[in-house]
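thought: user wants a sequence for this fold. calling inverse folding tool.
action: design(structure=
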């Protein structure tokens, strides 16, 4: 019997008595029935981000007739809290598991939300698609181009609905900016610049309460090499190359996707990057200061910078020969422009209607239309951020071959 053929009842019978203390529980039998009418969602990863997304589903539950029917997390603290939350919201105990495969094996789960550490986003997405589940996957969609390619191909071949967690795709201000940009108001565009800054050791979570007996450590490492339990890898995973490619995937993904959305660009041709741990020498392996330059075949550069040791305000702007699009003030002006056709008056961008990003995905699960942040866009931002991370980690310029869908030094 294939994973996507197994029913809840069958899965319960198979695992009852043999599941680990942290594994699937007998609550499986109590999840909501009527899957043909009600959408049943499984949550894979119930930490800070997963909890936020669960709350978004709760807000949309009545409008879209959905229920969270299963929760999965390797850490008992997160798992039990998520299950209690679901019981309070929906009145039934969800299925509980520490292994994501157990959730995918439940036939009546229609779709899953993937909110794990970055390194498992695409491996879980691939298995979800192979199990014929729709998915909401957090950004960055992938840390490897080969996995991004496989996920995109599977989603298209199996006609699955995949929403990526780049919420600006549902923001009415960014939609309006894209339409304004398409009019050619900026003239010839040569540069997009973005920066995001904080002044604290970001992601340095406490880990004293994270005990080995409460963690399914083998499930956490999953595709990574086996090693002794280390609570820092679970609680401070953002700091380690084992789990993420750093600021490029963690933050640049949002801005790369926004540049693609506004300009209509799809894939970059090359990237260079610098960065390092200059201030927060607390054992982290990922940079606390990072800067990348990414080149696009449309004829412009995107620069992105982030620092964790100075909280200078964020900025995001696109520069053309006739003026500047300021995506922090959401306005277009003649700043920096020249010539008779330069923009004469500053104009505020009139936003289009905002959409709830989760609600858009839930709606598309029924209509089978592509959601706002379709997997194709996730593939595009993955390429940009993987390219920049590879340039940082190797010290070499990297290029992307769009025909072969490969990156290499060059």
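)
observation: tool returned 410 residues.
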């Amino acid at each position: 019997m294939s994973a996507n053929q197994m029913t809840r009842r069958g899965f319960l019978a198979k695992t009852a008595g043999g599941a680990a203390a942290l594994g699937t529980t007998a609550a499986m039998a109590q999840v909501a029935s009527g899957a043909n009418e009600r959408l049943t969602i499984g949550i894979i990863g119930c930490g800070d981000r997963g909890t936020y997304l669960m709350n978004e589903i709760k807000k949309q539950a009545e409008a879209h007739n959905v229920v969270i029917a299963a929760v999965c997390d390797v850490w008992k603290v997160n798992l039990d809290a998520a299950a209690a939350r679901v019981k309070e919201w929906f009145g039934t105990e969800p299925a509980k598991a520490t292994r994501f495969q157990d959730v995918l094996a439940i036939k009546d789960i229609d779709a899953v939300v993937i909110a794990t550490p970055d390194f498992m986003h695409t491996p879980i997405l691939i298995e979800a698609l192979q199990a014929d589940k729709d998915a909401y996957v957090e950004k960055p969609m992938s840390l490897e181009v080969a996995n991004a390619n496989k996920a995109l191909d599977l989603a298209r071949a199996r006609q699955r609905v995949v929403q990526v967690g780049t919420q600006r795709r549902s923001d009415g201000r960014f939609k309006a900016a894209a339409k304004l940009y398409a009019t050619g108001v900026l003239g010839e565009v040569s540069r997009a610049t973005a920066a995001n800054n904080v002044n604290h050791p970001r992601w340095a979570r406490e880990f004293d309460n994270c005990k080995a007996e409460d963690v399914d450590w083998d499930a956490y490492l999953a595709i990574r090499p086996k090693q002794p339990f280390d609570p820092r890898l679970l609680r401070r995973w953002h700091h380690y190359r084992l789990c993420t490619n750093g600021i490029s995937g963690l933050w640049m993904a949002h801005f790369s996707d926004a540049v693609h959305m506004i300009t209509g660009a799809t894939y970059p041709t090359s990237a260079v990057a610098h960065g390092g741990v200059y201030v927060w020498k607390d054992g982290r392996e990922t940079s606390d200061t990072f800067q990348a330059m990414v080149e696009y075949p449309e004829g412009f550069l995107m620069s992105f910078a982030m620092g964790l040791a100075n909280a200078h305000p964020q900025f995001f702007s696109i520069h053309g020969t006739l003026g500047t699009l300021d995506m922090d003030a959401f306005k277009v002006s003649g700043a920096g422009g020249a010539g008779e056709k330069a923009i004469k008056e500053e104009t505020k961008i009139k936003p289009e209607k905002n959409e709830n990003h989760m609600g858009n995905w839930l709606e598309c699960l029924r209509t089978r239309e592509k959601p706002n942040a379709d997997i194709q866009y996730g593939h595009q931002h993955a390429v940009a951020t993987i390219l920049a991370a590879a340039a940082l980690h190797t010290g070499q310029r990297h290029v992307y071959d769009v025909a072969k869908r490969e990156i290499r030094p060059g």
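thought: summarizing for user.
answer: Here is the designed sequence. The first helix runs from residue 8 to 15.
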